[in-house]
Amino acid sequence: MTTPHKATMSFSDGTPSVDFPVYKGTIGPDVVDIRKLYGASGKFTFDPGFLSTAACESKITYIDGDVGELLYRGYPIEQIAVNCDYLESCYLLLNGDLPNPSQKKDFEHRVTMHTMVHEQMSRFFQGFRRDAHPMAILVGCVGALSAFYHDSLDIQNPEHRFISAIRLVAKMPTLVAMAYKYSAGQPFMYPKNDLSYSANFMRMMFGTPCEEYKPNEVLVRALDRILILHADHEQNASTSTVRLAGSSGANPFACIAAGIATLWGPAHGGANEACLQMLDGIQARGGVAKIGEFVAQVKDKNSSVKLMGFGHRVYKNYDPRAKLMRETCYEVLAELGLENDPSFALAMALEKIALEDDYFVQRKLYPNVDFYSGIVQKALGIPTSMFTCIFALARTVGWIAQWNEMISEPDQKIGRPRQLFSGPVRRDVKPIGNR
Ligand code: CMC
Questions:
Q1: How far is CA 98 from the centre of its chain?
Q2: 61-75, 172-186, 339-353: which range is least confident on average?
Q3: Which H helix or E strand runs over 101?
Q4: Would you call 188 helix, strand, or coil by DSSP?
Q5: I need a labelling partner for 202 at 20 to 30 A (CA). Which of 154, 258, 379, 391 fits?
């Protein structure tokens, strides 16, 4: 919505000043529409890392990083986490509002009917080394889904986009569990349709054909909460990647594979794995007694050591997801009789010290969701190398909702950032003997 205000950019080099419209969202900062800047002045804006740039308009997820608020379609994450399950959250993100009971039943049915992957997919797994990182397998296998589902690849057709969304949400747990089973050398488990989304995933991960798997309700709820908390997070690096890939008209499976690749990095989805490795490292060096030494290293500008699970580009307050994950952490450890788990005790001690230390306080570095999600996943029996896969499984719905929103825009354009070129100016190639 255009506000009565405008922004004027003036230049000291004689270029005439340019006026820009200012738009107001429903919440959040106003934005200055600088699209005509280049045409009017011959200049670009420069904003590597998108520190001040809104790359799209969206109605899906809103974060207020200063107060530590996260809303999915307007609903606070704290309310969704205690009142809804993951599939309801998926419905909300994809459709704009929470389902009523019959919509919920229908959605669950549709997802359940798509949980199997094409049988040929299992052969792909055989081509990977058993010790391959499961994220490497997942990037490949999700991209490969586009080779199987030609019947839903017309991205201009809303019905096709919907089927692809359902397929992705439904098949991700199956593929993630297959990646795990392959690394463990165990047979793949087919999905079981009478289980909930999260219970089915746990069975495909931890069950074997040798005996009946009985899901533990507390642990299933914990996993479901991990999925809810990671389902979407506005225009982060992987979501922006999915949008950029999708802006070229690439199919949704290829776009989600691109998102998974971006998520893998330790500054993004790889942080929960890195966080647990950090805790294990401190534990190995002496545990709580060594925290001071470790924190000193983190603060040393000459070291590249970071306190993993701390800090966020947007949250300059306690990440609301971290609070919920901390609660789940207590529940899971109590259920499993692991209240004295050394990683958890270490994490609590580290959090306390960091929250009081000037370095972290001044920079507004608070625990993020990954600080606790690794401990919960470890307690659930999920190996560290699988943590980012679980994140990818959860985030797939957010990626696909954002992709769908972008494709549905009538004036959608291919994403094409500009650059400040600082390389050599035009020069001539010398014959090889003269170089
Ligand atoms: N440990 C130590 N110092 C830190 C940390 C940290 N985890 N995070 C930021 N800083 C310092 C940083 O060195 C800088 O200091 P200075 O002003 O003296 O140069 C200051 O805090 C500002 O940091 P920044 O690098 O400008 O912040 P950013 O917004 O670019 O980076 C971040 C955000 C998440 C990449 C970063 O905080 C980080 O690397 N954290 C650890 C990794 C992590 O936990 N990532 C998970 C994010 S949550 C999951 C998700 O949404 O993907």
A1: 21
A2: 339-353
A3: helix 101-112
A4: coil
A5: 258
* Residue owning the nearest CA to atom 50 of ligand 1: 268
Q: Please pick, among 85, 224, 319, 370, the residue that the annotation labels catalytic.
A: 370
Q: Which residue in 232, 233, 312, 319 is the catalytic one?
A: 312
Atom number in ligand 1 closest to CA 49 = 30
- Mutation test residue for ligand 1: of 306, 314, 325, the one with most atoms within 8 Å of CB: 306
Give the residue whose CA is nearest to atom 51 of ligand 1: 268
> Tell me, what's the pLDDT at 268?
86
Q: Which residue out of 230, 313, 357 has the highest number of ligand 1 atoms within 8 Å of its CB and is therefore the one to mutate?
A: 313
Ligand 1 centroid – CA 35 distance (Å): 30
Burial 119-133 (b: 16+ CB within 10 A, else e): eebeebbeebeeebb
Helix pair angle (387-408, 86-95), 10° resolution = 20
Pairwise CA distance, residues 329 & 288, whole Å: 19
Spatial separation of the C-alpha atoms in residues 329 and 334, rounded to whole Å: 8
Q: Are 292 and 284 in contact, with CB atoms under 8 Å apart?
A: no
d(CA 168, CA 114): 9
Give which of 212, 214, 270 is closest to 386, Cα–Cα: 270
- In the residue annotation, 370 being an active-site residue is answered as yes
> In the annotation, is 114 catalytic?
no
Q: CB-side exposure of 370: number of CA atoms within 13 Å?
A: 26
Q: How crowded is residue 414: how many other Cβ atoms within 10 Å of its Cβ?
A: 9
- The pTM score is 0.92
Quote the pLDDT of residue 155.
Answer: 93
Say which DSSP state 430 is in: P
* Tokens 């919509």, residue located: 103
Q: Which of 63, 298, 325, 363 is the best mutation target for the ligand 1 pocket, counting ligand atoms within 8 Å of the beta carbon and taking the most?
A: 363
312 CA distance to ligand 1 middle (Å): 6
Write down the H helix ranges in 207-362. Answer: 217-229, 237-247, 252-263, 271-284, 291-299, 320-335, 342-356, 358-362
* Percent of the chain with pLDDT strictly greater than 90: 83
| Top-confidence residue, 380 or 1 | 380
By CB neighbour count within 10 A (0-12 exposed, 13-18 middle, 19+ buried), where does 282 fall?
buried
Closest C-alpha to 87, from 215, 205, 190, 223? 223
22 near 8, Cβ under 8 Å?
A: no
What average pLDDT score do residues 371-392 get? 92
Tokens, residue 52: 């001040």
